[in-house]
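Predict both folds.
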Amino acid sequence: MIDAEKIKEIIEEFFVKSGMENIEVRTSLSAGDGGNPKYSAFDINVMTSDASLYIGEKGRSIEAFERVLKTVLKKKFGEFIVIHLDINNYRSLRADDLKELARKAAHRARLYKNDVALEPMAASDRRVVHSELSAHPDIKTESMGEEPRRRIVIKYIP
């Protein structure tokens, strides 16, 4: 098993070399790995005072850093490591907002018995919405369109 402390050191070094100041990195074994022995999965939260540059518009910079860090870690450890990178809790706060958006859109779909199309969003954001509404038997979610304009349509099922 990969050591979380070693991952933390590598990520700290990566962001310090990228110019990030006042950095604190927290790593933990991901609860979402399902106990799969084929790979290690870690939740990583980087706290910094200059977060906006590293978050980017709608979290796009976080996604890019996550891809680069996965490559760095694979090269360092010789195996695929799943990481879920967050900066200043941006992704977790965004997930909360997306869940609320999903619940409101589902309510509108039920109320008006009409499809509700959400704005285009990244695959990771769509996954949050699909997951949030999956337990509702009277609601169906569908991704439609092509990237980067792919969106979710929420449908009421009577």
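Second protein follows, with its predicted structure tokens after the sequence.
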Amino acid sequence: MFAVAALALLVTLVLAVVRAALGPTVFDRAQAANTIGTVAMLLLAVIGFLNGRPEFLDLAIVYGLLNVIGTIAVLKFFRSGDLGDPGFAPPPQQR
């Protein structure tokens, strides 16, 4: 049963890679990259279960957290063009 799940995840991974390569917009590619990270996390957990290695679940959780943080950083960069917070700028002076 888990071998079938691993095979289904591999097919999903291939389809997400195709979507990332052919996506018409940047946001389609970002969503595909997030999907690739999520499927890779699930695949890591399934492979760890199949091999009897429970520590793979810890690695999958860390990978999932990095995936979320990376996706937020990429989308923030595409939205504002900068990852840093410029802080509070003084208002422009009126003449």
